[in-house]
């Protein structure tokens, strides 16, 4: 095109009216994200530039889109609470939408949020498994933070809980209270959370020259925990501790041990993971467990998104520590004189 492109040229190429093209370029009214993308694409293709367009595109709405694949709010609600604590201090608010784990619905929600003029997106998972990054054409250049489930693109910004650190701490604690015959009951082997927690546990075993008596994988369920605990005692009568990779598994293991006359924690100590009240605090005995620190993941995600909006983007994976909550299922037993000479010593306080 020999002459300078006009707004009418952009509208014609995008197959929309001049009014719609103007609204899309100036980010006014509620133009659909799909239409806005087509207009922006046409403007870029023609080399159309407008100072008022540039100015308006950098105006902030004060809204952040939060898209979750969580079905029941177990992950999304505490993460939203954490994000809002940070966003509120910067006069931002979050819009929460659930994709129910369906990519097509996720894309539709992004279109809706972009049409509302959100400043950025936080994408929340519920498995810890890595996920494909969002298509930049879908997000229209909005900054994106991936929370709990990391992006497969190492250049993206992802915030996750430190499952490797939790696994390492679990075994260190069990050794410190005198347990020596320790087994691990895990969920499905294809879950990154299971692999990472086992990896952390193995690192501590190696560090102190120990090894687990068994590592069993199956399902994230009470039924599996109960069945596995009975099997462990049958095959390893000296079993004195179990690291369960979820609270569901841990509560099932406690029930299985009770059914065969084993006391928790006197005979067998149990550690879970997730600090899910329904299982951890509502169990008998109550469960020592790891909290995924989801509220902190929400705060960090929101802060990193605000940093990106300020021109200071973060990249790579940031791990948030999972604190251990000590309850009745690992109450330390008295140490014998022989045990006290070992390399692991009971912590005080």
Question: How would you characterize this protein structure?
Answer:
The protein is of the alpha/beta class. It folds into three domains: 7-46, no CATH class; 63-162 and 294-321, Response regulator (Rossmann fold, 3-Layer(aba) Sandwich); 163-292, Response regulator (Rossmann fold, 3-Layer(aba) Sandwich), CATH 3.40.50.2300. It contains 13 helices and twelve strands. It has helices at residues 7-14, 18-26, 33-46, 51-57, 76-88, 103-115, 136-139, 163-176, 192-207, 222-235, 247-259, 277-280, 294-309; strands at 63-68, 93-98, 120-124, 144-147, 157-161, 182-186, 214-217, 241-244, 269-271, 289-290, 316-320, 324-325. The chain has a six-stranded parallel sheet with strand order 2-1-3-4-5-11, sandwiched between helices. Strands 7-6-8-9 form a four-stranded parallel sheet, with helices on both faces. Strand 3, helix 7 (136-139) and strand 4 form a beta-alpha-beta unit. The radius of gyration is 26 Å and the shape is elongated.
Order of helices and strands: HHHHEHEHEHEEHEHEHEHEHEHEE
CATH class designation of the largest domain: Alpha Beta
Question: Can you list the strand order of the major beta sheet?
Answer: 2-1-3-4-5-11
Q: How many structural units, i.e. domains?
A: 3
Helix content: 40-55%
CATH fold call of the largest domain: Rossmann fold
| Spatial shape | elongated
Amino- and carboxy-terminal Cα gap: 77 Å
Q: DSSP strand (E) fraction?
A: 5-15%
Mean pLDDT: 87
What structural class do helix, strand and pairing data support?
A: alpha/beta
Total beta strands: 12
